């Protein structure tokens, strides 16, 4: 699991694992759906149901249209007005020599913050 004694090999291994894991899970889900579609599901009570309930095409088109409209509105917001939902405190130019007065650390970092401010 560790991949080596140094942090570099371990970090590379876990990065590769966490990058590939969603694709592996998605492939297994598609494979599961293919097998389920091919053989059908099992009923624990043993009652065979020969009625086939398929999802009407209307629902597929309606969901696809809703997804497309949502994606289009999100892209419109992102591309044409990216600063609409931003915080106004992020827009002034940064001054590396002066910390803005509204920025304060959590209470457990106050001693370090005080030491840095006194320098």
From TrEMBL:
InterPro entries found in the cross-reference section: Cyt_b/b6_C, Cyt_b/b6_C_sf, Cyt_b/b6_N, Cytb/b6-like_sf, Di-haem_cyt_TM
Localization in the cell: Mitochondrion inner membrane
GO molecular function terms listed in the Swiss-Prot or TrEMBL record: metal ion binding; oxidoreductase activity; quinol-cytochrome-c reductase activity
Names of the cofactor(s): heme b
Oligomeric form and interacting partners: The main subunits of complex b-c1 are: cytochrome b, cytochrome c1 and the Rieske protein.
Similarity comment text for this entry: Belongs to the cytochrome b family.
Protein name (Swiss-Prot/TrEMBL): Cytochrome b
């Amino acid at each position: 699991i560790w991949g080596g004694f140094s942090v570099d090999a371990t970090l590379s291994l876990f990065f590769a694992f966490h990058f590939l894991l969603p694709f592996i899970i998605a492939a297994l889900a598609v494979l599961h759906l293919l097998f389920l579609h091919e053989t059908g599901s099992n009923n624990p009570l043993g009652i065979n149901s020969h009625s086939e309930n398929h999802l009407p095409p209307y629902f597929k088109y309606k969901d696809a249209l809703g997804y497309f409209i949502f994606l289009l509105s999100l892209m419109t917001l992102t591309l044409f007005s990216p600063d609409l939902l931003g915080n106004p405190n992020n827009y002034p130019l940064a001054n590396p020599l002066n910390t803005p007065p509204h920025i304060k650390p959590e209470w457990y970092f106050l001693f370090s913050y005080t030491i840095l401010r006194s320098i």
